[in-house]
Model the fold of this input.
Amino acid sequence: MTAQVEHEKNALDANPEPGGELRYVARQAILDGKGHVYGYDLLFRNPPEAIFRRDADAAVETMLDNELLFGLERLTKGAPAFITCNADALTGDLVMVLAPSTTILGVPASLDISPRLVDACGTLRSRGFRISLDGFTWSERLIPLIQQADYIRTDFRNFGFAEREQIDKLGLNPISLVAQKVDTQDDYQQAQVNGFSLFQGSYLCDPVVLKKRKIPANRLFHFDIVRELYHDPIDIRKISQLLRSDASLTFRLLRLVNSPIYCLRQEVRSIENAIMILGEETFRRTITLAILSEMNADQPVEILHMGLLRARFCELAARTFQQDPSEQYLLGLFSLLPAMLRVPMEEIVPSLPLRGPICEALIGVRNPERNLLSWIESHERGDWPTCDRIASTQGLHSNQLVVWYEEALIWAASATPGMS
Done:
């Protein structure tokens, strides 16, 4: 058995669900009005009614499988986790296996509003949990739950001035409004007008881009550096001169090299020193990451986090998909360049040192090179059927890809302390 195969088997055996399958869990960022991550909505493959079954022992086991063994800290980096529950989980205290300080319990508005459920929400709040009323549309029957809620999560299109006025009449403490299905910048602006302060949706990765807009000159200079990096061998003298002309990029490079991701025993103080210590391949990757960090400087850092997660996942799974790991790493990393630069991908790819099929994959062509990127994009949306379909084309069970996703999540979290 090869080391890679043995590693995959051990990882799969480490986290089984009853019946022998991992449960998928994905996360979607919830951002505040400044683009900072406020928390993460955790999406499970099984809906809440399956996750929290009436059998208390099975429910607790599932909670442990999905939350504790997978690791909320790894999923959310310490930010609050929004977790949808059902009545049994709330009234039976099953959620007490979670940390109140970092857990926001989602109560579906579709639940039967019983006195027991309302009392349970009050008790959980007294123990430090926060309550989110999910799938909200105004109804008087929800008033008892509104009175317990710290958040209301809803499709922003279903919540306007009239709904806000009804809630204000109740004279409650301030409730944070979380806008869901915010998929465009126009959606984001409208949600702000409607009074929302937190936002969830794909708008983060789909910014407004201008068809005629070109890459800014300073960013073209960065792409010149990227192209130079991928000459083999690297011209150390030339690359050092290019980097020295950009003080901000050099600072980001050295800050990144000295971050925990590389666990170096000595501090790196110069570009030449970084090349000697890291080696050419790691240096290429580090400079590329520093450049992406610089390009993303005016955008939410979550975009860069997502790019790192995609990059590492594509790299880890590449050989199983008969792809080159280094190419797949760059494909994942560069996949969010339009969100960073607000420039169409078609304007960006001619500047990238990538093969034609990888460039086509970035543009959206459905070719073999794009399979892994498509899988993780679907995973981010909780589109499990598409994940399964992509895995099956390679004769894989999606569990194998879930393990690589978890490893990529951990790696991406360790890669970001030096970038903010």
